[in-house]
Write a structure and sequence with these properties.
28% helix; Ribosomal Protein L13p, Chain: A; alpha/beta; 4-stranded parallel sheet; globular; two-stranded antiparallel sheet; 5 helices
């Protein structure tokens, strides 16, 4: 029959690209699910579950992301200082005012695996509120999310 074995990638065989995506006018959840897929490497034929085969992603214009419905007023983000009474609660609108990158980051990281491999994938995500970024040397390719 021939050689019909499935090829399992090794970490040193993985070739990682750099992509740049503008979040202007994008819906938060749809952007997050597509970017998480790229970070995991599921868009590549050589995807291997236990290896980080994903690409680097730069997201610009995070301040122009769209939250549908009443999410700006009703969606809450929680964090805790690990001290008694240290629970901090912010609405999406408050968080958007001082760090719009954090809303996008939390949405994407929540869709990655919650283990060592997921943390490694999350480090390949670069988010910026405006259109400027310091990664020109990596020559990122523009990515239209409709392609994926």
């Amino acid at each position: 029959m021939g050689n019909l074995k499935t090829k399992s990638m090794k970490q040193d065989e993985v070739q990682q690209d750099w992509w740049i995506i503008s979040a202007a006018g994008q819906r938060l959840g749809r952007l997050a699910s597509r970017v998480a897929r790229i970070l995991m490497g599921k868009h590549k034929p050589e995807y291997t579950r236990h290896i980080d085969t994903g690409d680097f992603v730069i997201i610009t214009d995070a301040e122009k992301i769209i939250l549908t419905g009443n999410k700006l007023e009703n969606k809450k983000y929680y964090r805790h200082s690990q001290h008694p009474g240290g629970l901090k609660v912010e609405t999406a609108e408050e968080l958007m005012e001082h760090s719009p990158e954090e809303i996008v980051r939390r949405a994407i990281l929540g869709m990655l695996p919650h283990n060592r491999l997921g943390r490694k994938m999350g480090q390949k995500l670069k988010i910026y509120a405006g259109s400027e970024h310091p990664h020109q040397a990596q020559q990122p390719q523009p990515l239209q999310l409709e392609e994926i």
